[in-house]
């Protein structure tokens, strides 16, 4: 059968994917790969798929799409305190892709494999009638019993978030409404920062060990800070109070919110942050913040877990009235 | 956001997927699952995706589609001599699915989890603009160093296949051309057998231990017997000769070929058999055949590996001239 894009399945594997393969993947010439677990470790397994027109735009460059697909999974591993081992990729290809696009996809994966320390354990390539899809299964490892759970927060813990919140949601808003940046009077550097944070998450894998050592509970913020902390509170059987004024916003997000106050609600409830939300016992907060500082990653206490239930956002900002318990839902 | 099919993402997880979850998947309420490998074992990892309109028909029942998605992966594990542990599933849902369909999907997965002894370690649910997709990552285990490889065939080994060959390819031909069955004069029982074998593979997981104990090389036949044995020959650095008269055909396939001789080429080169193709050293052939008989699964020697390269199909049937080295290509 004639191959799409002028490149056949076996050529595609040999050209793009075999160079990314782990030793146990046998050059991707077998039906499966093997992996020998290290003694004393648990594996951590996670799976996230990205779909053209749903999780990214059809005209996003394929290197960025590939990196996003990998990074949303790496973000889950980081939140669990897990060090990446490898991944498998099911790639759904549209009919009309180009060799340049597939080469870009491979280059994006190669760059992130090197940056995050993992390799490819196999996958599948299928025809995708509606456009590019990438379904990634990521595998990490923790010490036995060491996976940090969403439901691990305890009353009295400090709630810490990494990086900055809301950039990706604001970037998506700018992407959907190209005139918005002008209406907000955003300088190009701020606009570009927000767009880039939507395009390319920054998973906090450099903090995985510190998460495992310090956090009692953790998750990554993928569906919006407020909604996700609500899930953590529910899973942990605690209430979580956060102070809106302490939520870290980038300069770009601050400029957007200053121009249009309702955007604070977008920042606090919008998806795609891929930052960490952690619950840390008081005695370990300083150690975690020091580890984050050493890694060059921002980390800020924004609230506290207490006996009770639900998520409360404290602050006087007028946009807070709009919050509800909104969280991005997947369909 | 309003959910498709009158069922929201969290309800979907709670209703359909949480009952399928492994202990380490924490009721699918976390970002990831953990798995504690057994000492002395390697994990075997494989990933196959099925797409509506490509790997199954849009009007196939969802319980069968779900089972097919799982089974094509279980077939890979069986061919590697691996015992199933668990799987992850990325489910792409069209806009207009019904609760009955999603319940059927869950029931199909539940039935096969019980039949094949594995459970769900997580996944993702996304919107799929072009129709249902299921991307499965399956995890199995073998003794350390014990994964049976495609490239393990050695000169002198006997080539053994399980079950019957070509039923699924003939079933697909019947599905694509509803008048074909009548033209061939096939009784309903034969037509139904072939259609069913296309709809629902029979992975040979019951033979995984025998494969691990006896086979020097192995793969599952997913892209056609001749083409797949050609891949085994190439990966192993041997030639493989098979005798077309010894390839096991079901009564239904024999009837189809008797009516239309060219269909033998379809049977020998068509995809979706999901039977095992094994290379077994002479001294272990009897033990493997005995294990297959004990499991109630057909297993037949059809040829031999020898020094050289390539795949040769011996026999006098006129359709053999059409074979070429055809093998289904994925796009």
TrEMBL record, chains A, B:
Mg(2+) 3 binds at residues 31, 76, 220. Substrate binds at residues 55, 272, 328. HAMAP family: TMP_kinase. Keywords: ATP-binding, Kinase, Magnesium, Metal-binding, Nucleotide-binding, Thiamine biosynthesis, Transferase. InterPro entries: PurM-like_C_dom, PurM-like_C_sf, PurM-like_N, PurM-like_N_sf, ThiL-like. SUPFAM superfamilies: PurM C-terminal domain-like (SSF56042), PurM N-terminal domain-like (SSF55326). Mg(2+) 5 binds at residue 223. Belongs to the thiamine-monophosphate kinase family. Mg(2+) 1 binds at residues 48, 124. Mg(2+) 4 binds at residues 31, 46, 76. Its EC number is 2.7.4.16. Residues 30-142 form the PurM-like N-terminal domain. Catalyzes the ATP-dependent phosphorylation of thiamine-monophosphate (TMP) to form thiamine-pyrophosphate (TPP), the active form of vitamin B1. Gene3D superfamilies: PurM-like C-terminal domain, PurM-like, N-terminal domain. GO terms for biological process: thiamine biosynthetic process; thiamine diphosphate biosynthetic process. This is Thiamine-monophosphate kinase. ATP binds at residues 123-124, 150, 222. The keyword Coiled coil does not apply. Mg(2+) 2 binds at residues 48, 76. Reaction mechanism of ThiL seems to utilize a direct, inline transfer of the gamma-phosphate of ATP to TMP rather than a phosphorylated enzyme intermediate. Pathway: Cofactor biosynthesis; thiamine diphosphate biosynthesis; thiamine diphosphate from thiamine phosphate: step 1/1. The keyword Endoplasmic reticulum does not apply. It catalyses: thiamine phosphate + ATP = thiamine diphosphate + ADP.
